[in-house]
Every structure is written in C-alpha cells, then in structure tokens.
Amino acid sequence: MRRVVITGMGAVTPLGNSVEETWDSVVKGHSGIGKLTRFDCTKFSAKTAAQVHNFDLSDYMQINKRHRMDRFAQYAVASSLMAIKDSGIVPGETITRERIGVSFGTAIGGIESFEEMHKNLLEGGYTNLYPFSTTMVISNMAASQVSIALGAKGVNTVSVISCASGSNAIGDAFRIIQRGEADAMLAGGSEASLTPLGIGAFCAMGAISTNPDPKTACRPFDKHRDGLVMGEGAGALVLEALESAVRRDADIYGEIVGYSSVSDAYHITSPAPGGEGAIRAMEGALSQSGLLKEDIDYINAHGTSTKYNDKFETQAIKTFLQERAFSIPISSTKSMTGHMMGAAGAVEAIFTLMTLKTGVIPPTINLTTPDPECDLNYVPNAAKKARVNAALSNALGFGGHNTALIFKRTEE
C-alpha cells in the first residue's frame, strides 16, 4: 500500500473564496452565517443561512461555461482549479492525465436547476426545457466537470451519502492511490442547496434552526441549540502518492493515514444511540492508521448543532477515547460555516490539515451555555495554539452514514 499525502487545497465557502481567506476567518472565530437572501423566505421558519458571496466562475475559467453548470458544479470546478494550482501539478506534464483521477461528493446535487426546470416544464412543456437540463441536475456532474476542466482522464467517481459525501470521496480517493490505480486524485465535496425546496424540506423536518439572529443561530454543543443552519460551497484536495510528491519536491500539508465508512443500520435521520456507528468509524480509521489513540491530538467534530447529533457524537468520542476524551480539543467549525451538507466533510478536512500545519485549533463559536450532556473540551469561542501531530475528522449523515478520516504530519 502506497503512502498518500495532500499537496493542494482549494475552497469556496461562506467565509471566503479561497482556503487562505476561509481559514483566516475561522481562526478569528468569524461567522459566515447571515440573513437568507437567495430567495424570499418570508413564509419559511428558517430565516438564516451560510451563503457564498462574490462568486463568479469566470474568475476561475477563461471560458465561462456557467450556463451548462448548476451552482454546485461551479463551486466544485472553482475549488478544484485552486487545489490543482496550489499543488503545482500540471496535468499531462508533471503527471500524465491518465494517472490523475477525480472523486467528488455531493448530498443533493443540482437542486437549484431542478427547481428552475420544473417551473419551465409547467409553464411551457418539455420544449421549454434547456437542452442541458439533465446534465445540470445529476449528482455526478461535479466530478465530471472537474475532470473536464482539469483534463484528468483517470478514475472518475462520485460519492452521494448525505452529509458524509465529501469525507467519503476523500477516503475513496485515498484507497485508489493506495492500490496504485492513480498517482494523484482531486477529491472533495460540493453543495448548493439554498433553494426553496432545499430549505423548505429541512424546515418541514424540524431539523433547522429558527433562531432569528444569524450570528448565534448555529451553536453546536450548547444547551440552547435548536437545529442546524444550512450552508453551501465546496472544498477540494489534491491527494498524491508520497513518492510522486517527493519526486516533484512538492509542499505537503499532511498525510492521510486512516479512513473508515460504516452504517448505523438504525434510522434514516437519527444517529444510533450512543453514537455506535461513529465509534466503529473512528475505530476503523485508527486501526488502518498505525497510530494509537494516544496519538490523536485533535478532533474536528461533525457537530451540527442538533439535539441528537451533538449528544451522540459526544458519547461516541467518550467511548472511543475513554478518559482522554475530556482533555483532547474538539471543535465544530460548522458554528462558522453552517452545515455545508455534501461539502462539509471536505471543507472540514481542509481545516483539520490547516490545524496540523499551523498549530492553531479552531474554536466552536456561540458556545455560551454548555449542555451537561455535552461536557468535553470544544474549544469554546476562541482559537487556541497547540502542536497537533495527528487529527481526526468526523462526518455523519442521514441514512446512518458514518465516516472518519485521520491525518498526520508527514515524515518521509
């Protein structure tokens, strides 16, 4: 099995349209959540969202193909172009195109285009539909458009497992390189579901915060949390075989050493009691990593700001780490980005790698009234500095999906 490192990263988030801008905001504890303005939400129980601002695909591509891409695919392409540039890989030159693959995730796909096209169908029949209607809606189009934009001709796959999609896509890319099927993979997740149907469905479920104050609406692990806040955007990482990165003398953010994806087989929305599935995911990732539990210095939690997720994830971490769970720093960066759904795990993997690189642990903001059932060290409200040698990132999704990734500092 080949060792796999991360050599490039890119991001489009509610906190900024680059990794640098986003990370700077996270470290400062800034919130990307604001009033929902994408559509008229007067009749919706949710009034807040974490929206991407000042995004224009033409900033990233010489030829503007926006009319052929749903917003979620645009975010994927932009973040991927940033990541490949950051890596220094020139497809077809530094690595042959056939040895570069793509693994991208999304929870919902082209819902914005779906809603628009359904409206067009009702108004004028099928002849009123855009010729690229199908290819703007289907979930594989993030991976497909990234592959086309980069000229990457290797493995091309998509992960659609709810809120764990981005993490799962990274894990699958890790295994593809380990097995020798590719030398580099562009992996990540993308989402753009801030639409009437996307928001409305979560309102109907009762899973979304109704707090009218955007800046305090998302409060993971806090006693007064009342639901998630939806976000959007994309995160992309370049995973590369260590020998390839060393040969190129590439800058390395960290090494991915563990990945596990398991199912609760319990309920379509509720996590299994005690976080049983999350425990097995963390244990599985650790068993692959060659590390001990004592080596894990930080956890980027799934931390959705919902009643059961935060409670059961806390219980899972306690079971996984035993007494050490009370001292290890844990943070939910969703408190600042909102829940980016299929993009969440990818962006949070980026935050985890930046923690390894910089020694800065992001805070969980809005944690002012601790929940007695959520009694771990969630780095409340202000970042802290600490050397982190190995870190774990959790992603849990509707349907009972549990994914864990482990990253560590690279030693050649």
Automatic annotation (TrEMBL):
SUPFAM superfamilies (alphabetical): Thiolase-like
Domain Ketosynthase family 3 (KS3): 1-409
Keyword list, A-Z: Acyltransferase, Fatty acid biosynthesis, Fatty acid metabolism, Lipid biosynthesis, Lipid metabolism, Transferase
Pfam families from the UniProt entry: ketoacyl-synt, Ketoacyl-synt_C
Signal peptide range in chain numbering: none
Catalytic activity: (9Z)-hexadecenoyl-[ACP] + malonyl-[ACP] + H(+) = 3-oxo-(11Z)-octadecenoyl-[ACP] + holo-[ACP] + CO2; a fatty acyl-[ACP] + malonyl-[ACP] + H(+) = a 3-oxoacyl-[ACP] + holo-[ACP] + CO2
Enzyme Commission numbers on file: 2.3.1.179
Statement: the UniProt record of this protein carries the keyword Lipid metabolism: yes
InterPro entries for the chain: 3-oxoacyl-ACP_synth-2, Beta-ketoacyl_synthase, Ketoacyl_synth_C, Ketoacyl_synth_N, PKS_Beta-ketoAc_synthase_dom, Thiolase-like
PANTHER family: 3-OXOACYL-[ACYL-CARRIER-PROTEIN] SYNTHASE, MITOCHONDRIAL, POLYKETIDE SYNTHASE-RELATED
Family (UniProt): Belongs to the thiolase-like superfamily. Beta-ketoacyl-ACP synthases family.
Role according to the record: Involved in the type II fatty acid elongation cycle. Catalyzes the elongation of a wide range of acyl-ACP by the addition of two carbons from malonyl-ACP to an acyl acceptor. Can efficiently catalyze the conversion of palmitoleoyl-ACP (cis-hexadec-9-enoyl-ACP) to cis-vaccenoyl-ACP (cis-octadec-11-enoyl-ACP), an essential step in the thermal regulation of fatty acid composition.
Descriptive protein name: 3-oxoacyl-[acyl-carrier-protein] synthase 2
Species, as recorded: Peribacillus deserti
